[in-house]
Specification:
single chain, two-stranded antiparallel sheet, mainly alpha, Multidrug-efflux Transporter Regulator, Chain: A, Domain 2
């Protein structure tokens, strides 16, 4: 069962009130690690308006980690092959022949 973003936010508020803020709030690097993406990906999402920090100055932003994880899940590819090489287009051939070195 997936919780809605509103439910996640209420759970975060309860965690903060109970002194467990570290479970739901984190820096750029902590949020990226929890979501399984690179910090640069979060920066791109911020520049595109897909993600906003809760508060903080540039370079010291604080994120709601469950929201970042949900955004990452929503953006993942639907069909991920088991073998990364499955995306290859087969053997590659040179379009032009190299001149003989002799």
């Amino acid at each position: 069962m997936t919780l809605s973003l509103d439910d996640l936010r209420w759970n975060a508020l309860e965690a903060v009130q109970e002194g467990r803020a570290h479970e739901v709030l984190g820096t750029l690097h902590e949020a990226a690690e929890a979501a399984g993406v690179k910090p640069g990906t979060l920066r791109v999402w911020m520049s595109r308006g897909k993600l906003k920090p809760l508060f903080g100055d540039p370079g010291g932003e604080v994120f709601h980690i469950p929201t970042v994880v949900e955004i990452a899940k929503a953006g993942r590819a639907r069909n991920v092959p088991k073998d990364p090489a499955a995306n290859a287009r087969g053997p590659h051939r040179r379009r032009t022949e190299l001149p003989n070195a002799a």
